[in-house]
# Entry
Amino acid sequence: MTHPAGLHPAEAYDYLVVARSKLLDWIRPLPAELYTREFPFGYKNIRATLVHVTSAEWGYVRRLRGEPVPPAGERPFARYAGEPFVPLEAAWAAQAEETRRTLREVRDWAQPLEWVASVGGRTRRYRTTTGGVALQLLFHEIHHRAQVMAMLRQLGVAAENLDYSVLGFQVQDA
# Structure
């Protein structure tokens, strides 16, 4: 799976890591009470949202490798649900290397994938392809990043413009 402009999923992931770095720069200076302040949407606070995104990324990488994925509460990133920001940030950086490597190793983006998972008390069968999982990995983070940016704005942090056109295009005055 390569975008018509020649963009491979691993390159798209590289953009996510650049955008993530800027997002984490806004989060890093927050005191614990703001990092965990509750909001009436999403996963309710910045920490829980980041833990969810990192845990999901770990799970999508396992799916791309054909490995089993335990329920969210049993995944390695679940332990950060009660931790401060710094250990989660370090663990996510290590996961990013694993994710990037896995995306580069996929050879067949049309390979069918299927699994059964229970979410919210419902058991469902999922069918997609390795390309579908890669797209979900990318888009999932963007979705939750927007939630975190909204939380940050409500905390008074000017979290703005992580758009690909800003971070990924070469731009110069004409």
Q: What stands out?
A: The two ends are 34 Å apart (CA to CA). Residues 114 and 127 are 4 Å apart (CA to CA). The chain has one domain: 9-165. The helical segments are 9-27, 32-35, 46-64, 85-105, 130-154, 164-167.
